[in-house]
Amino acid sequence: MSADQPIFFDIKRYALHDGPNIRTTVFFKGCPLRCPWCRNPEGIRTGLEVVTIQDRCIGCRECIDGCPESALSLDDRIIVRNEDRCLLHLNCVEICPSLAQKAVGWKASIDRMMEEIEKDLPFFDEFDGGVTFSGGEPLIQADHLVELLRRCGEKEIHRTVDTSGYAAADTLLSVAEHTDLFLFDLKHMDPVRHREFTGVDNGPILRNLRILGEQGARVRIRIPLIGSVNDDRENIDATGRFLARLDAIQDVDLRVYHHLAGATYRKLDLNDVGGAFFSPSADAVVEIRNILEDYGLSVSLEQ
Predict the structure, then answer these.
(1) What are phi and psi for residue 298, nearest 5 degrees?
(2) CATH class for the domain made up of 7-45+109-302
(3) pTM over 0.90
(4) DSSP letters along 63-93, please?
(5) Span 151-171, mean pLDDT?
(6) pLDDT at position 265 over 60
(7) What is the CA angle 20-253-167, rounded to 5?
(8) How far apart are CA 29 and CA 137, in angstroms?
């Protein structure tokens, strides 16, 4: 187990689409994929970050004067951060009167995170819910994830892991020992197209999905339906054929793409190309669902 504390970027309570019933979703920071349609761009980068929300800045210079590393300057009413100098002391976040400086991500001990999760035990008991670990990619902090899963198991909390499946097989298997349900993203079957859109090969992902099926793990497939990316008949048929061979994995959730994270991309000063993608038509979604059901899969739809 690493001595470092895990890094998170959000906790969402009363989540209804991150596993069965009412969930508390814990978001790990960091992801090896670079999907341009990502709905949680604040979870992409691995480490802690500080960003300036420029339209909140009132030009008071409090952050500049209070930075112990002199990492901030004012250029034509725009706060500029020298990333090489910034050591993330967070003084600027603490003293900014207009809340223009914002920390993205935080470190918390396993004990501290368990305290947060256990606050919702009454809801888990009443509504048969549990905790979902998402991201980013939770497998990127696998040691911390396993420890949290183990501790939740001791409390008899239902445990779901929402993952891209991109990790070493032994990492995934160590996580599977303490996981009740995987929500497993399947973005594209073609390796060239998958690398084009995500930056990584889909070979390890598909191998890991086979391994989970062979181990008898409970898995729900999640397919983000993105117009002009993965909604064509060739890819849908390839997806259906692949999943039909995995007898233990038959549940598929179709998630229609919507471009909702533009403001977050701007805040993080990330290139936002999500607007270049579009949602498949309602008729196309119905056809995709019918194709997958013809392969014997149980398909649900999340608009």
Answers:
(1) -95, 110
(2) alpha beta
(3) yes
(4) HHHH-TT--EEEETTEEEE-TTT-----HHH
(5) 98
(6) yes
(7) 85
(8) 7
For the chain, the straight-line distance linking the first and the last C-alpha, in angstroms and rounded, comes to 39
User: Which of 6, 18, 12 lies closest to 148 in space, CA to CA?
Assistant: 6
Domain at 49-104: CATH code: 3.30.70.20
Question: Where residue 130 falls among pLDDT bands split at 50, 70, 90?
Answer: very high
pLDDT computed for residue 2 by the predictor: 44
DSSP state of 14: E
* Among the listed residues 232, 245, 244, the one whose alpha carbon sits nearest the alpha carbon of residue 288: 232
Tokens of 57: 């800045």
Query: Which pairs with CB-CB distance under 8 Å and at least 24 residues apart come from 98-102?
Result: 98/56, 98/57, 98/58, 98/60, 99/53, 99/56, 100/52, 100/53, 100/54, 100/56, 100/57, 100/58, 100/63, 101/50, 101/51, 101/52, 101/53, 101/63, 102/50, 102/51, 102/52, 102/53, 102/267
75 vs 240, more confident: 240
Tally of CB atoms within 10 A around 17: 12
Burial profile 115-130: b = 16 or more Cβ within 10 angstroms, e = fewer: eebbebeebbeeeebb
φ/ψ (deg, to 5) at 68: -70, -15
Q: How much of the chain, in percent, has pLDDT values that exceed 70?
A: 99
Spans of all domains in the chain: 7-45+109-302, 49-104
Strand partners, 185: 222
Q: Report pLDDT for 266.
A: 80
DSSP structure class, residue 236: H
So what's the pLDDT on residue 259? 85
